[in-house]
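PROTOCOL LOG
Step 1. Enter all chains and additional molecules of the complex.
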Amino acid sequence: MIEAGTLVYIDGRRVSENEAKISVFDRGLLYGDSVFETIATHDGRPFMLVDHIRRLRHSAELVYIDLSVDDATLCSEVEVAVVESGNSECYVRLTVTRGIGGLGLDPSLSENSCRILIVTPLRRPLPEAYENGVSAISYRTQRTAESTEATGAKVGNYLVAVLAMRQAKPVNANEALIVNSEDRVVEGATSNLFVRFGDELTTPPESAGILPGITRQLVLEVAGRSKIAVSYRCPMLSELSTADEIFITSSVREILPIVKLDGRSVGDGLPGPLYRKIRLGYSSLVQEKLAQAPRFFRAVTTK
Ligand SMILES: Cc1ncc(COP(=O)(O)O)c(C=O)c1O
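Step 2. Run joint prediction.
Step 3. Record the structure below.
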């Protein structure tokens, strides 16, 4: 049974729960041969939609998946789905797989990509998580896309993140910070990382093979407006024990303070002043972005 308020569309067509199935020969299933976006709504509207669709297209280009529809169509499909769901706020998952093909890695075995849109009620972390902070663990690995031409693409294979979260769950940690082979922290399993050391905010650079997060970009905009010094580097895991503040960013969690890492308090063990300042600036920026955002659904339906 899928949750109430969940709608599924395959290649732009709304399908019932019974029809919400794809082939066992779909390469997304066989090889993780897919790209995707996770989008959250704000005030009932898909937030930073154009940016998410742009990143989806970029991911598809990086792995040579042909996205057969244009950005405006994708944007309007997402907006229509959100409205049709009737949810006050939605979690939107848009996946594009390379499609169906015979067994074998050769990408040309598949002719048509397949897009799957799922809209479901949004569950953000509880207010206490933002007020009191959450805990995280560190997880040593190499990201799968790290050494390929697809670095920076949001590809469907999230097995590393799944395994990291498997370790986080038993210790009630909300996130796993990914540590690379040089003992440097690059990002979260599904988030970007910010660390305050003294007056400086540190975040890993895109060149570290991170996902260039849309929320990360907004936080950097807030930091720029507030004249906060930012250094772009991947901190050593050992350095994080001297961090004054740590917070993570993602579309669903927005900005979430980490007050405990691997069981040890971060700073004084409470969400810090920089987090609070950035959070305030972020809330105003969200309103600005919403006011500026184009409406694709209306543009299509009023024609
Ligand atoms: C690996 C990874 N890094 C960062 C992010 C945050 O990106 P965004 O702010 O665009 O949601 C995500 C989001 O799912 C992610 O999976």
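Step 4. Note key features.
DSSP finds eight helices and 15 strands in the chain.
The longest strand covers residues 34-42.
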